[in-house]
Amino acid sequence: MKERRSASVGIIGGGPVGLCLALDLAWRGIDVAVIEQRYPAEPPSVKCNHISSRTMETFRRLGLVREIRDAGLPHDYPNDVVFRTRATGYELTRIPIPCRRDRYMSKAGPDTDWPTPEPAHRINQIFFEPILFRHAKQMAKITLLNRARADAFDQTADGVHVTATDLDAGNTFKLDCRYLVGCDGGRSGVRRQMGAKLAGDEVIQRVQSSYIRAPTLLNLITPPAAWMSYLYNPERAGNLVAIDGREKWLIHNYLLPHEEDFEAVDRDRCIRALLGVGSDFQYELLAKEDWIGRRLVANALRERRVFICGDAAHLWVPYAGYGMNAGIADAMNLSWQLAAHLNGWAPATILDAYERERLPITDQVSRFAMKHAAGAIRERTHLPPEVEDDTPAGAAARARVGKAAYDLNVQQFACAGLNYGYFYDASPIIAYDGEAQPRYTMHDYTPSSVPGCRAPHLWLSDGRSLYDAMGPDYTLLRFDPSVDVSPLTRTAADCGLPLAVLDVRSREAAPLYRDKLLLSRPDQHVAWRGDQLPATPRELVDLVRGATVG
Ligand SMILES: Cc1cc2nc3c(=O)[nH]c(=O)nc-3n(C[C@H](O)[C@H](O)[C@H](O)COP(=O)(O)OP(=O)(O)OC[C@H]3O[C@@H](n4cnc5c(N)ncnc54)[C@H](O)[C@@H]3O)c2cc1C
To answer: Which partner for 26 in 141, 153, 293, 308 could form a disulfide, CB atoms 3.0-4.6 Å apart?
Structure first.
């Protein structure tokens, strides 16, 4: 590797968050270098299995969505979440989720009426990350430095200088960049060197996790199959995830509070108890993936020219499938602000918005996930002893447990609030108008045009998605074509702020958008709205490009 390299933005960590950040920055015209210790295209461990709808909207914009949607489970493999006593035991309840063949059309299921052009997608990280890697490799603005370990950085007034080791050659090299982003996961060295501290709950749940190959299991399960199966019986509780829809499975064994040592718990016995199979059942252990569910959030996301995103900034129990997805949301927030500054239309002060917007959301999501985890732990540790009995009392117990499981878990598997409901209510670059944003929960989302919210999605009269029609940067939506917006477009042009104007014709608009005009940011959050332009458009333009941040 060359002794000295440079890029506008350096990224440490080429996991899903680092690669998404690199792809979005490059899409916005910024050159980046990614330092990653793994081999090129080396698959990650089998962790994340869910790409949220909001993340899929991002992949749609970046032109990756078709390839990602086509990967993972077979196209007709059910994406349902099922609750059973054991994998081969009684079914307690089922949350229907369309398979990927039917994903855009199906109306059967609690997440099929969502206001989005891109529903969620169930796919394991081992299939999805290599797609990101392939695209990143093809982009001229991205330099991927694999088999390199970032060791330290120092900051000067105009840049950050990273010292890294070439893991094959054994020598060190330097990466000079204007900004550095640590996407280096839960053990983040960048976070540590920044001096940020994680705080929260160290242990919520220990999980003994095994990646197995079991070619006969699918035939032993009463159809229809499921993408994820929660397994609750008086002996053990766990969770089984279909990885390839044929023979590979990830099985989580939820350890009891006194089972603190992963290796002291008989893995094989627990796997057989969860699957409901005897000693004659054959399977191969491909990898041990044990993990601890936590709720930890960093107290800072930035130190001058250095930022952190993703697991480097927050770790929580993977309820609602919202670890990686929350990290990608961080990256998309930071990316457009960095690009705005590096492309010359926003001063460096715009970068103050990142921490002020994302840190409160991070804390909220971590608490939603923890509250849900506490409910799930309560549910599975208070099972009626007769739940597996072939008697009327057993059937009644299964119906009760099934209903409670559905009511609790539909919130995490149809988490519209987490996807679209979060809003930025204390941002220095949003023009608030006094109306409060609607409350959201993990599950509940109320579309709203209040500044700070995600601009509600709608279908245009020509059949296009509103988001496909918006520009890459700021977009002024005009719902009444008679309003003259030229004072704002002229001012934006004078300041170099890229602004597209989109006349919206759609019958869906009236109940969603209160005002005749709305300014949407590059990340589709509302920056301002009104029936007429402000008296001094320059003040609005300066606010949204961060020129007034104190
Ligand atoms: C069992 C389980 C299930 C999960 N399911 C979901 C789910 O369904 N949905 C979801 O959204 N999330 C899920 N998550 C969470 C998700 O896996 C993580 O949030 C996600 O991987 C974080 O991505 P990241 O890019 O921030 O970090 P990582 O994936 O940890 O990537 C960090 C990268 O940085 C590299 N790196 C670290 N230090 C250095 C260094 N010094 N130099 C060079 N490279 C370095 C590492 O090699 C790694 O590639 C789950 C987690 C678990 C444990």
So the answer is: 141
